[in-house]
Amino acid sequence: MLDLKTVLIVTLATASLQAIAWICVWRAWRHLYELKFLAAGFTAIALGVLMMILRGEQPAAWAVVLHNTVIKLGLVLLAEGLARFLGQPRYTWVGISLLVFQVVAWSIALAVNPNDLAIRVHASTFFTVVMMSVMCLALGRDRTQPWYLRWITIGLLVEYMAASMVQSSLEFWAPATVQGITILDNRNAWYLLQGVLFLIGLFACLLFMVSWRLSADLREKNMALSREVLERQRLAGRLHASLEAERTLREEQADLMRLVSHEFRTPLAVIRNAADMIELTGGKASQATRERLASMGQALDRLFSLVDRFLTSDRDHGFQPELIPIANLMTNVQLHFEMVGLSARLHFNMDDHASSIHADPDMLATVVINLVDNALKYSPEDQPIHIDIRTKDGNLVIQVRDSGIGIPRAEQHKIGRRFFRASNTLAGTGSGLGLYSSRRILAYHDGLLELLPNAGPGTMAVVRVPLASKAARQAEPTETRTWHVY
Length: 486
Description:
- The protein is an alpha+beta fold.
- It has helices spanning 4-28, 35-54, 61-86, 92-112, 117-141, 147-173, 189-281, 287-310, 326-339, 361-377, 434-444; strands at residues 322-325, 346-350, 356-359, 385-392, 395-401, 448-453, 459-466.
- A five-stranded mixed sheet has the order 2-4-5-7-6, covered by helices on one side. A two-stranded antiparallel sheet has the order 1-3.
- Strand 6 and strand 7 (459-466) form a beta hairpin.
- The relative contact order is 0.06.
């Protein structure tokens, strides 16, 4: 006949080792937080069995209730952990209700008739059948685990429920006579032995389930990684195609610039030759005529310089900064508009005539001329244009204020784009390149251009260019610069 204490010790060893194993598994894969319920369940079973071994031959009633309730708590935790692991409804309320039933039923049985073991055995059987049925329900609904593994586990649970009902039947048909309130003796050893075998089988099934889950997660991650690699390869191909298209466009652009440069030089050369002939054959021309011819020569020199810098393929020598007095820069701007007879509407105001700036004089003059030309173009002919020049916080600040048509609020963020013209402008008044080219030129100087609403009607263009040598860096303007237009 089996020895009850020996079987209890084997049960304790088995449950303890399984609890330790699940604790290690949970710590290794923390993302499977459900495993901590399995570890807690096996720990509770081992603790309940240990308390049974350590209690005396005549334990107190509360001790009997406590020890068996701890074991039943372990079964509830196993059911909770299995349901969480499989992603099934947990029915936690069923486990809590059964624990309350366990405590109440056993307490009443021990208080009314301590020698009647059948009532306690029947209560334990009811508890076991209900909890394991809940576990079978979770396994039957699951589709994440292999069908054969689920049904093997269900078979183990059914076997344990059948053994519990057999034990209950034995107590009903052949009740044991006991001394005191000890519930177990050697006649119950077979039930505990099959319980040990059940724990070993359940442990193996749960371990295989975890292994399957980890393998499935690994396969899913590998598939996701493969999809990402394919997507990256596709994007790399598109990027390569885009780069090739960009390179082709740049080559075409360079060819166009060389063509335009050649076509610009021809009419400019004709104009220069005509001006030289007028100067040579004009005899004693008036002072005003000589000044106009000199101005034409200067304008032609400036146009040739701009063509060389912006329309040739040699971009390394396009930006040529030097230290120039700000007063000289503004004098050249004023002279340009005097030559075309538009200087009468211009009002220059400079607070510092002694400051200098490190910049490309032709480029910076072109920016100011573009802004003043826009102000003249979009303002009434009887309204003045105010050009304020000052130095502030290490920057040259140039403000060009007009009383013109202004910029529609809905289109303010578009002003400055290439070929964009506001909806309130007249046809033939511009090409939409003036502000765009001005910003491109300012990018060489690390400068900014802002368009602000004027205090009254019209617009105020504000240019900020660093005075220091930072503007002398010979680098191309970046396409990603953000311009703020108000």
